[in-house]
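Methods — Computational structure assignment.
A single polypeptide chain was analysed. Its primary sequence is given first, followed by the predicted tertiary structure written as structure tokens.
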Amino acid sequence: MTFLIRLAINAIAIWLAASWVTGIDIATTSDGGTGNDILVVVFIAFVFTVVNAFIKPLVQLLSLPLLILTLGLFTLVINALMLLLTSWITETTDFGISVDGFWTAVWGALIISIVNFVLTAVVPSAKR
């Protein structure tokens, strides 16, 4: 159940980042309609959630000295790299997310982090 909640929160965050940041585009087929667009965003959120669950902890462990040196601000760079990795993985399909560059990914990661923080605080969790 926690995975589904995390997936829904990531889907909303990615959709908002694509809406607000120029240079982040969600590529869908034009004839699918709204239901197809939602499935594409859920697919992108699934890939993003899996990347954050398995690859992000390893990257954070390897970059621990930089995280300590920057007092945690390097986490924003790691989040941007995870967004770029998600973009790279999903661009191999017919639909996915495309990010123009590193600084676009930083702005997108900042929006995704803020939306994740707010929605995680609002949505009740089974762990509380």
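Note: Residues 2-115 form one domain.
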